[in-house]
Design brief:
Elements lengths: L1 H40 L6 E3 L5 E3 L12 E9 L5 H14 L3 E9 L20 H9 L4 E6 L11 H6 L2 E5 L6 E5 L4 H17 L6 H4 L2 E6 L9 H8 L8 E4 L18 E4 L11 E5 L3 H14 L2 H4 L6 H10 L2
Parallel strand pairs: 3-4, 3-8, 4-5, 9-10
Antiparallel strand pairs: 1-2, 6-7, 8-11, 10-11
Length: 331
């Protein structure tokens, strides 16, 4: 009797295990079917990889030809050691490609020891950067068709003492005498004067890309160290393609490191930058430019710098931002 009871319990145990095995099998088949169904309706994503710093970089198919109406020339200027590459990939290059644009990228980057105009104690330098690595990484980003490096040469750099002496000057009323007194807010005026000249000269190297105005719908100039954190690309592109007449320089809202934020009154021949009201000029960190102004945008600042005389313009606070405004607007 005991043996019969034991055999009965053993039979129940085997049936239970068999049912459990069948349940797992059914569950596995259901999961596989759901996965296949979801893949059938999922969009065809290109492969992506996450870089070591957590930024997502799109990779995959590259278009072999481009339509000028959907092609952009991006020129990154400054110093290689201060380049914030992944920020520009994530917040500028990839979003433009997602809107259907292809890109050529010019790198007007100095490879010499880093230069600073202000206190550099908190600066983060990309000392592992090399032009070869940067070019290679950019060439792997979806939408980028060609990358070229234009190494700035400062052996022939010219200076304008009239600009340099006026740099940082401003006038204010003496609280005691009531008289207007000229002061200078800079503690490092000679260094800033040299770096301003280098900045204006570097911009001219962006113009070395052949037929920029002919082959692109618009340009983007971005400084190497800028961190783009907020940018309304849709509004910027709407202003660039609005078809209004006139060569308007449009400066608009946004924090100093917020990237470009579109302003109003812009149209054909437009330059769109971040707001720079504090300096009464044009923000020098990033700009979106109509292709019709390519040559002027890249060439004119250095030319204006070399001929600048504050007796003509009477700028109250002179710096790079105000020089850009004079160069592009003539006043």
């Amino acid at each position: 009797r005991a043996i019969h009871q034991l055999m009965k319990e053993r039979k129940k145990e085997l049936v239970s295990k068999k049912n459990l095995t069948m349940s797992f099998t059914i569950l596995f088949v259901v999961l596989i079917s759901v996965f296949e169904l979801s893949m059938a309706f999922a969009p065809n994503h290109l492969p992506i990889n996450t870089n070591s710093n957590g930024h997502v970089q799109h990779k995959g198919i590259h278009s072999s030809t481009h339509n000028a109406s959907k092609h952009v020339y991006i020129c990154i200027t400054g110093q290689l050691s201060r380049l914030e590459l992944h920020n520009k990939i994530e917040h500028l290059i990839t979003p433009l490609n997602e809107l259907g644009y292809t890109m050529n990228i010019g790198l007007a980057l100095s490879t010499e020891a880093p230069q600073f105009s202000n206190n550099n104690s908190g600066a983060k330098l990309s000392l592992k950067n090399s032009i070869e690595r940067v070019v290679s990484e950019l060439e792997g980003v979806r939408g980028v068709q060609e990358v070229r490096h234009f190494r700035p040469d400062f052996t022939d750099l010219k200076f304008n003492p009239k600009y340099d002496k006026s740099l940082g000057n401003f006038t204010e009323k003496n609280k005691v005498t009531g008289l207007m007194v000229e002061k200078n807010y800079l503690t490092n005026q000679p260094v800033l004067a040299v770096n301003n000249a280098r900045q204006f000269r570097t911009l001219q190297y962006c113009d070395k890309w052949p037929d920029v105005a002919k082959d692109t719908t618009f340009l983007v100039r971005v400084r190497e160290d800028v961190l783009i954190v907020n940018m309304d690309l849709g509004r910027i592109l709407h202003l660039l393609h609005s078809g209004d007449s006139g060569d308007t320089v449009s400066a608009a809202g946004g924090s100093s490191d917020a990237g470009a934020d579109a302003g109003s009154g812009a149209g054909v021949g437009t330059i769109i930058t971040s707001e720079c009201d504090a300096w009464r000029g044009i923000n020098d960190k990033i700009a979106f430019v109509s292709s019709s102004r390519a040559r002027e945008f890249f060439r004119q600042p250095y030319r204006t710098y070399l001929t600048f005389d504050n007796k003509k313009y009477r700028v109250q606070k002179l710096n790079a931002e105000t020089l850009y405004k004079i160069a592009y607007s003539g006043k």
